[in-house]
Write a structure and sequence with these properties.
There is one protein chain. α7 packs across α8 and α37 runs parallel beside α41. This protein is of the alpha/beta class. Strands 5, 6, 7, 8, 9 and 10 form a six-stranded antiparallel sheet that branches. Strands 11-13-12-15-16-14 form a six-stranded antiparallel sheet, sandwiched between helices. The protein has a four-stranded mixed sheet with strand order 1-2-4-3, covered by helices on one side. The longest helix has 22 residues. It folds into five domains: about 170 residues, Uridine Diphospho-n-acetylenolpyruvylglucosamine Reductase, domain 3 (2-Layer Sandwich); about 110 residues, 2-Layer Sandwich (Alpha-Beta Plaits), CATH 3.30.70; about 140 residues, Alpha-Beta Plaits; about 70 residues; about 325 residues, no CATH class. It has 41 helices and 24 strands. It is about 45% helix and about 15% strand. It starts with 9 loop residues before the first helix and ends with a helix.
Length: about 950
Amino acid sequence: MAEKTTFSFLKYFMKLQALLETILPVNRIKTRLIDVMAYANDAGFYHLIPKAVVQPISVQEVKQLFQLSHQQKIPLVFRAGGTSLSGQSITDGILVDIGKHWRGIEPLENGKLVKVQPGIIGSMVNAYLKPYKRKIGPDPSSITAAMMGGILSNNSSGMCCGVAYNSYHTMQSIHFVLPNGNNYNTADNNSYDLFLQQDAVLANTIIQLQKRIVDNQDLYNKIRKKYQTKNTVGYGLNAFIDYQHPLDIVAHLLIGAEGTLGFIASAVMQTLPSLPHTATAMLYFNSIYEACASIIPLKNTNADVLELMDRASLKSVENLKGLPDFFKDLPSTAACILCEYQAESKTELQAKIKQFNTVANELQLLHPVSFTSDEKTRDFYWKIRKGMFPSVGAVRAKGTTVLLEDIAFPLENLADAVVELQDLFKEFEYHDAIIFGHAKDGNIHFVVTQLLDSEAEINRYDTFMKTIVHMVLNKYDGTLKAEHGTGRNMAPFVEAEWGGVAYEIMQTLKQTIDPNNLLNPGVIINTDKNAHIKNLKQMPVVEEEVDKCIECGYCEPNCPSRDVTLTPRQRIQVRRQLQRFEKEGNKADYKTLLQQYQYDGLDTCATDGLCQSDCPVQINTGELVKRLRKEQHHAFSNNVALFVAKNFRLVETSTRFLIHSAVTLNQLFGKNFIRNTTAAIKKIVPSFPLWMNEMGKAPKQLINTPSQPQVVYFTACLHRVMGNQHGGKSLQQAFLDVCAKANIQVLLPKEITGHCCGQPFSSKGFLAAARHTEEKTIDALIEWTNNGQIPVVCDFTSCTYTLLHNQSFFTEAYKQKFAKITWIDTTEFLRKTVLPQLPIQQSKKEIVLHPVCSAKKLYLDDDFKAIAQACSQQVIIPKYAGCCGMAGDRGFLVPDLTESATALEIAEIKEKQCDGFYSSGKTCEMAMSHYSGKNYEHIVHLLDEVSG
């Protein structure tokens, strides 16, 4: 398919769709323009448009996809998290997305082993292992987004695991499917004989290749030497000399095969102890040569981490608050090593630090060294180290691509090699290039940015890479890929690294297992010597948020719409594709993509902003969506919104009446009468909101006016118009009662009706309406607080966040007014002010919490958890706790979003028979209650219940 996509091959795609529908239901086949464009990129710098994206849920369906691939001669590529940096998870054939339905995990033998499916995220595996004080061996920096399928298929390692604890060495057994449809599980002894019978040709080929290696002493020794350091170039030939049975050899060849030999359905991994004690320090050197020269003596002290950072990378983070005074004044040649020791006990840790002291005087350090075990300081040091890559991505020139390369050298050659690499940066004019990496293993990463939109720029990159290849292989006996996999960008150089005999063995292996070259073709084995400079991803200039994105995919696990429509990364990728279509003059596809983007990109975005929390360049895609929504509004709709804002008191009163009436009708005609009625209307008018029974009758409007109030209680408009589904005490009454028990006088103003934080308008891009609402509320707060003398407590965390966050939109006059007001969320107020004065009479046995996304962004999670722990013997926060997708009204307008967003979290607690379920916002409580069948309430109710 040409780069200028016209999608005129309608017959072909209809045929493919029909064939796929014989295997999968329609809802797991994605062939719309927006679907294939959203999967055309991964985290690397290549671009291929798939013909279809499919989501199988079983080994049987995978087998059928293999069969279809062979029958139709269509390439097949498996994709997990899409965090691959070398183009391993894209295709112009059928892309098999396994990130949605293959999330199984099972700790075994008290956590010493763990069984994983390929779609579960690495950090989530560690979350399940945490109670056992264990973790998986591989620890790539992308572990919060990378899935186990990619971690295994790329033989991932990371910062601490080195070679000994990478995916290859910690995989105990594996269940896999070959392209011919045969599947085996090395945990099952019967698979060994079955393999010899069913795949006799492959088994015999493996035996012959093994003999060829063993009989070639030079090759045998080369393999042994190369795998003493990190190496992910080509297939893992060490499997031929580490194992004897052909099935074991094939099983271990799959690790690091980048999805070119088969599909990994599950694997059992050996785990490692998660060491509780650490000591961390930053070691500063006058030059990178001196830093690299110190690696061997430091490694001999049993340092667990030695992370190298050159001066350019340090400069990229020098504006972080908390850095030492000398940081900005470091010499232009300076470098730093993040050194860390880990231990089971404090005694063992002290012993390791003593070992460091034995070599400290030999190191040419610029500043005295001080090891710390303070967790916050350690986190800050790691923030510096992990900020290298994103900092370059954030400040790069618009339209440029971030190229992150990965090489390794024997430690004795590291210093000379790194110095020469810096010289090459100057020669090829990569003036913003930085070097960092896992120096303990001789593994360094370097980042360059450049345009890839002209022949001259592509030639510069090509010549630079070929020069790097020569330097690494011929001058310093290094490896071209230490942990990022071969991919497309190193496939042309595999033979240069390994030599003709080894490469021929790899070719024979691929040809035997995948004779038609349909499984991830072009990756690892590629006869095109220019493959690394073809199908390059273009990064057109679009808009501020989009232009900053490096498409790493770190944002995706936090997105509530990830399993329904698009992720934040994909929203941005589609925006870029729209720009490409417009530039090409491709009006038809531009129009189609723009129409599809309305629902997938805009309507189903919860705008919660959690994507920003793990984004290396701090993009809040929710803000982008709000702005795009704003741009869609015409003058009429803006005027309507402003009219509503100006008459919000009437709107609130009317909403209370309507909800009260709806609840009454349910009582008369059946509990689902309004739900069914609105569902019927929604089928005709998709934009019509769907009723949720969890709304409940509005509480009685309370007024509380003590003579000397200590706080002003701002109860959110949603809490004022909706009550508890199951009746009982209102939130407002519970808050007043709790404060009374703690001897705190609370003012609940009579005039609060009609006041709002503005979120119902700002989230939809009606900024004038939002500003009017916020200004009206601030004026009232100034009056109620006696010009800011009394603090204000808000009982909906989302409202707390909105007013604090929207300060940037205030006029200068209202900024000054708002600055006088102490605006506190209920969660913080309850923990710091109420809880210390509240007598807890009878704590609950076990409760479940749902932290709302705004609490996470306000760093209130610890307060929320502390309140719960004071009230219950056991507190459960689901591992998949995240944004519920309600986003104010999304749950009413786009219920599929909320149902999907809550599914994984609810699956964890659906069997729990706890003493209570709590959150800190009405709409979030409604969503969790509706889809779980549990009664979620505000955390205020918990305190009220346990305090008598």
